[in-house]
Structure of NUDIX domain-containing protein:
Amino acid sequence: MATSNYIKKLREKIGHDLVWVPGAIAVIMNDNNEVLLGRRADDETWGLVGGFVEPNEQPADTAVREALEETGLTVAPQRIASVIAYERTYSNGDQCRYLDTAFLCKVVSGSIVGGNDESSGFEWFAKDRLPKLGHHDTQVIEAAFGGSAEAWFVPAA
């Protein structure tokens, strides 16, 4: 995931301190009930399509923008699949606390493009043959495949 100019400017001011970052994920499903995953260009792990919500964006717009930028597909969000917060510390020491809103999306038009600076490629996966994923992506996909019209979230403590 490329770092937005907003986050870069913020990092210039606060260094590696914890930053609260809103994110949006496009859980793109096809007619065969398969989910589209991208292989990250930096570490070759598989993951969902998504990115930072820019200061002037709504989360659903971010999911649509990120899907088009990363995959070449125009998608339409159908419902919120999940809302999850998690922390990550990067190898350079940057600390982030993400609040991701994941949208179940259908493809409206376009075709998958080859790799780019963020992803080396994309592939459709059935639920029973998913590659190894991080805990966060696994939670999001489980919620999306759940079939409920209600959004999933981590229950209050």
Residues 5-9+20-148 form a domain with the Nucleoside Triphosphate Pyrophosphohydrolase fold (CATH 3.90.79.10).
